[in-house]
Amino acid sequence: MQNRRAIYPGTFDPITNGHLDIIRRACSMFDEIIIAVASSEDKKPMFALEDRINMIYVATKEFPKISIVGFDTLLVDLSDKLEANIVIRGLRAISDFEYELQMGYANASLKKELETIYLMPHLENAFISSSVVRSLLKFNGKIDHLVPTEVLDYMNRDK
Predict the structure, then answer these.
(1) pTM for this model (two decimals)
(2) Looking at the annotation, which residues are catalytic?
(3) How many domains does the chain contain in total?
(4) For 88-118, how does the pLDDT look when each residue is reduced to its tens digit (9 = 90+)?
């Protein structure tokens, strides 16, 4: 029987409860989930790649099906390297759908075997995004309801 391996790519700057919602549900569908953390230097992330990977690690340590990799290549090239032809993406709103549909088609044009599966977070997580968290962090806003406790602890470790 073939191992059903899926990639969940993103910047995860930082990982949120919405991301965990998608990861938890994807774990019930696949044998292995590879969380692929994009370097995304063009987006000028708030957190270094190593910190984003570490935050995901502490937030997902209870999930046995998870592995985490950093990458700075095309997703289709990463999928070849990891031997995974399923991509998981989260959708919160219509604007997400338009962008994700374009990206899914672009990836499929580069690799026909690559399938993209879209998951919606549960309603209580639908408004959460990393950009909302970053905006709140800039003003020392409250984020404990938006990120996993382990991530909050990681962010506060040097304070």
Answers:
(1) 0.93
(2) 19, 43, 92, 130
(3) 1
(4) 999 987 778 888 899 999 999 999 999 999 9
